[in-house]
Fold this protein.
Amino acid sequence: MLSKAILQNRITEKRGLKGAGRVIGSLFRLAVLISLSVVALFPVIYMFSVAFRPYEQMSDPTVVWIPKSLTLYNFKRLLEVFDYPTALLNTAKITLICTLLTMITCSAAGYGLARYRFKGQKLVLAVVILMIIVPPQNILISSFIDLKYFDFFGLGRIVGLFTGEPLTYSLIGKELSMYLPAALGSGIRSGLFILIFSRFYAGLPKELEDAAAIDGCNPLNTYIRVVLPSATSIFVVVFLLSFVWYWNDYYFTNTFMRDSMTLAGQLPALKSKIDVTIHNISSGAVINDDLVTTMTQAAYILMIAPPIALYVVLQRKFTESIERSGIVG
Amino acid sequence: MKRLRLSYERRRALTGFLFLLPFIIGALTFFLRPFIGTVVYSLSKIEYGDSGTTVDFLGFKNYTDAFVSNSEFLPAFLDSLGNVLYEVPFILVFSLALAVVLCGEFKGRTFFRAAFFLPLIISTGPAAAAAQGSASGLYSADNSIMMFEAVSIEPLLMSFGLGENFVSTIVGIINNIFNLTLKSGVQILIFIAGIKAIPTYLYEVTQIEGANRWETFWLVTFRMISPMLLINIVYTVIDSFSDVNNPAMKFINTMTQNLKIEIGSAAATVYFISILLLLLIVIGLWNRFLSDDAV
């Protein structure tokens, strides 16, 4: 099978475009990409420029972008204050579990919405869209109360009819307060993922599923064996987006889990922590704002490195998905 | 025991419902209940007394307060709508163009794909505030913000005889390119996935038929990514509307912070329901005219 790029090149060759034209074209592409990616990369360039420079150079007017010397001192000092390995493991655990649960539920819901017709379907779609619209902070107070007095989907109240006291269980301060909504399709941005899955599944050809059904495959098996293998690329996208949003979340983790040991949860408070620790350790030293700045940027690098690495590895999967789908041709 | 017999349609409907069941339970518990709680607030009067908080039913008074007595919300609402109308088309065109370019096979593509994914990682996390703060500090330090200012092209565009409003819109977009690039991360990713999922044989067909690149784009790429285009329209509209810097969102958040939760909730309820209606109309029109498969 020919790759798309080769085909496109052949198309241009056929139209008689000269080699020079193509060179100019790719130079133009490169120029546009570089100038736009500078805008996107700007904060990261700043992070690297600051995190690896000795803090004395922060107030040196001759140093703007490129430090005169590089150092790992900021990282070393940071790890004294901040238990990075524990926070990293905690974040990875919560993020991965929530992302996997989100993918399972949202994919199934999207498939149900795309392939089946039933009463109230339009209403379900409206709720999905409303979930994307309403920012979590606008219903946070109510969600907090509901999680604090979680009544097992109303079952606790039925028990309460017999015992006099409704049975409730506080999920606040427990990791379950993150896992349970994720498992039931109400995690971070779940509505968007359901919409993405449903549009994707609606666009797949129905023939393979019909064939499987005629061969006696039940709906669940059809979904798992026939539909899922052709959805790799969309799963990669949802995985990446959900991973990043859970990784960066400090809003839910700090509200529902109180003192969460996640990277994003700890970063906002890190500055004051650095402040206190540094000025205690080096007794008698003047207040050193420059060191706080360089250490904070070092912390940001440690925070965003894992999702970037994940993206670089996973983006290759985009190209693999077509060959595996079995729907081609 | 006799097996329960259901008609084919009934069985299909039940299967579809079962696929959605976990989500329906979750949405009822973790979304609709708190959301309805917020709507109840908007219909009530909340008193913060010594003996705790009391919620009394009030009717629609908060709504009239938000819309009639308070003269700020309606203009803010219209202002937000204006922002969305100009932002959405630009972000969509921008992200589609970038996605098409990034899907090509060229040297350094991994680097550039990662570069345009970065804003997503940074702008949603705690690094966002710091990155923005540091950026603005540096900009003012060495005037590099001039890089993104397009004031100087204003007279040039005017001299072409273009309308004043049109010119100021263009200048606004160029000045805003920093923000718009930051807002396009999700859309670029969704478009890339859509383009990569297009079967190769369609490109083979256009090659045999002798279509050029431009025709191939409109006949194959654009057609095949139309489901992704709808998702991106919905996402971009919602993202612009629920941006905390949007005048209407600012109003809602200020009200909530000032403990006028009732009025904030009333404004929020109207705001969200009108966005929902707008999007349902868009999706309805889309399914009617542009697509043969309904959502």
Remarks:
- The radius of gyration of chain B is 25 Å.
